[in-house]
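Summary for the steering committee. One of the milestones for this cycle was to obtain a three-dimensional model of the protein with pyridoxal-5'-phosphate bound, which we needed before selecting residues for the alanine scan. The sequence and ligand used are listed below.
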Amino acid sequence: MRASQNWSNPIAHLIRHQPDTARYYFCPATLHATALRFQSGFNGLVTYAVKANASEEVLTNLVAAGVRTFDVASPVEMRAVRAVCPDAVLHYNNPVRSPDEVALAAAIGVASCSVDCPTELDKLSVLPKHTEITVRLALPVPGAAYDFGEKFGVGPERAIALLREVAKRGFTPAITFHPGTQCADPAAWGSYIACAAEVARTADVRIARLNVGGGFAAHRNGPAPDLEAIFDHISTQTKLHFGPTPPALVCEPGRAMVADAFALATRVKALREGGSVFLNDGIYGGLSEARDIGCGDRIRVISAADGTTRNAQPIARVIYGPTCDSLDRLPDPVALPGDIAAGDYVLFDGLGAYSQSIATRFNGYGPEEPVTVDCLS
Ligand SMILES: Cc1ncc(COP(=O)(O)O)c(C=O)c1O
């Protein structure tokens, strides 16, 4: 079931209501189109990484779009998925779990779990033997916004031993990796797939599935990433390295699945001499990822008076958030139109992933619940 669509676009709502708090705009049609793009382009099972945006409207719309399998990191995420889809298949791919969390996962019934060390595999002994256990591989592969291999995953030598152990214990063996988030380079997947094939061959274990992770880049700067080029590379590299009977493929996009379905509208509280801008949201709210991966260039400044887009020659401006903390400032100056004025709305497009999930209510700020729109432009 799709959420009801009350507004044609964010600007219509902003001009009518003149909101003075930051808020998201959600376009279900965009989410459906992205889900379809993954399902028709990726040569395997498309799952969704709930951590990117666990809101009920996202999960409900993905289920309506045909997504039935979800990558969950915690019991809370498991329950959120099952609340909207009681028969959803759960892949529990947070490789570090407490014994209590494993017991809950067993009770809820997860189909697959990732591991990256023998002690974590020991904890999974309470799961039924048919459970798929995916060994998480980590390689020093460039291409992403930051390195996921620093925290999780195991190098090829230890992956071989772990995969053998998974098979010996009677679980269904598989391999997984994550090339790092916001990755637009197909070669990153290629390197991992070649290594995964070598690990399985050396371990002499036939893997049922290869989970190629999330990591697919969302549109943040310049031209939109070519997801189809990544899908094609994954498919050809899997056939090339695994031979005539390749494992079934699984992917678990978070960012690229949901980013484009939301925009964040902030408002200019004040313009200061020297050109700096105070917004009503910042790094403690919906712009938290700006610290780590920048805020991209998909930014529109809208006049609150008539909804027109400001278009004077851009000026690089320091952007501060609304809280009383002086760290509440975007790390780099952002190019904003020279005619920006106090009271204008600054719309950040493509902010559906890791924005709502991470936003805090520090100092009483933080974005409001999403307004549903027919289209975001
Ligand atoms: C195991 C796993 N799968 C998938 C994802 C989603 O990654 P992305 O949002 O980059 O697609 C993450 C992100 O942290 C993850 O840890």
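Key point for the committee: The longest strand covers residues 262-271.
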